[in-house]
Amino acid sequence: MPSSLENRRDFLSFASHGIGATAALMLLQRDRFLQADDSTSQGVLSEADDPPPHHAPRVRRVIHIVMNGGFSQVDSFDHKPELERQHGKPLGSSEKPDVFFGQVGLLRKSDWEFKQRGESGLWISELFPNLATVADDLTVVRSMFAETSNHTPGTFQEHTGFRLNGFPTIGAWMSFGLGCETENLPAYVVIPDPRGLPAGGSINWTNGFLPARHQGVVVRSKGAPIDDLFPATPIAESTDQASRELLAALNRRHREERGGGDVLAARIRSYELAARMQLAVPEVAALDQETKATQEDYGLNRSETADFGRACLLTRRLLEKGVRFVQMMSGGAFASPRINWDGHEDMRQNHGQEALRIDRPIAALIRDLKQRGLLDETLILATSEFGRTPFTQSQAQVLGAGRDHNQYGFSIWMAGGGLKHGFAYGATDDVGWKAVENRTSWYDLHATVLHLLGIDHQRLTFYHNGIRRRLTNVHGEVVHGVLA
User: Fold this and answer.
1) Whole-model pTM?
2) Residue 421: helix, strand or coil by DSSP?
3) Owning domain of residue 195
4) Is residue 270 part of a domain?
5) How far apart are the first and last CA of the chain?
6) Of the candidates 478, 455, 443, 473, which has an alpha carbon nearest to the alpha carbon of residue 51?
7) Looking at beta carbons, which pairs linking 269-272 to residues 24 or more positions away fall under 8 Å?
């Protein structure tokens, strides 16, 4: 490192020319040598003032599987024998359920048989026959609750802890707190469902008020991984170099005239990263380099599992290259016919279709990470914005085939390091309507995820508009009951 201010300026001037040299700036900033030169417009450091880890981490990376639309707990991980006995009867509660469409039909048992799985005896239904084979690696939280049963604000809260948009997602907070492990790929990657984006679109992987470089970068599992990764027509190396030097000169002039800003700094970094990704992305996305047996295990040879199988296999390869947070979307926009987990009309058709797409690939991913020695340092998190009602979405005294949204009690599952495996935490009532034991909020879950990464959720903050913001707002307790 230069020892004087003059040498430092010379070094930075040199580093502004050419992609190979400017990459040094990214590495220096990643290692926090240049924090003070990368301040936000509010005059605070753009990296955490109290940088993690705050304690010994249990995992280094996170896979977040997002089941958009409202995934049913009573048809998957929350076995309710009483619901079977009460099938076709009224709810029998003096409290009128507040549901999205206002229709409260009769209680309906699951369309899938539940069985105890593995040595742990964890209850999992036939909706997920492949995931059931790795039951002893799973940790289920059966007592989640949300603050809304509306898809878009519910999805925002799932990702950011807030029902309004504009707040950083958990992946952005992780990138902000821990930075990158690789200079060739982003810290935070999102793999959308090729059928469409979720409610709210790209807001679901926004950096919010955090520095712009912490937003999620979309990489597709089908077709071109990233748009415009290569020029439409070949460019001579000398022309390419001259163009980059011109761009660097224009950026310097802009900074001298207007001062540094997060938007410009983020754009410069995005071009630097894009240049490095020209080499890294084609390599990591070359799924045909995997053995035939691996491709078949992930379901790439089956039409119903190929899309999500590619996403899962791409995820494993991204983790191996140093990406910290990968988000896989299962389900897209609210189109007709439905292409997500929003089973209003017919649960068997809807959930059966969606589970078939992801069941085999997820089980393969867990096995693959485990046999490669990566599962113990990875957290897999599978969530939905809320659950579904144990009664049908029908007029009173009618037994329909669909279920409405249910914010009062639902399930999520996890796997990986630092957790009790083959374990279920919390409980809903006898029919699976409301969380009644060890009630767990999104704040609690987010605090727990950060804790496993070595982050104290109360200490990872960012000063914005007069408030020291954090992922968990002013709430949240680590769910120690799920930790090993």
Assistant:
1) 0.86
2) coil
3) 59-225+285-482
4) no
5) 43
6) 455
7) 269/26, 269/213, 270/213, 271/247, 272/19, 272/22, 272/23, 272/25, 272/26
Alpha-carbon span 98 to 429, nearest angstrom: 16
Q: Structural domain tally of the chain?
A: 1
- What does the pLDDT look like over 458-481, one tens digit per residue? 999 999 999 999 999 999 999 999
Question: Considering the domain boundaries, does residue 210 fall inside one?
Answer: yes
Question: Which residues have a Cβ under 8 Å from the Cβ of 139 and sit 6 or more positions away?
Answer: 413, 414, 415, 419, 420, 421, 423, 424, 425, 482
Confidence band (pLDDT; 50, 70, 90) for 96? confident
> pLDDT band at residue 88, thresholds of 50, 70 and 90?
very high
Helix (H, G, I), strand (E, B) or coil at 157: helix
Residue 175's closest CA among 219, 207, 204?
A: 207
Assigned domain for 247 exists: no
Average pLDDT over residues 448-465: 97
Q: Is there a contact between 30 and 179 (Cβ–Cβ < 8 Å)?
A: yes
What is the residue whose two structure tokens read 């374990």? 423
Q: What is the rounded CA–CA span in Å between residue 279 and residue 206?
A: 25
What average pLDDT does the segment 327-354 reach? 93
The yes-or-no verdict on residue 12 having pLDDT over 50 is no
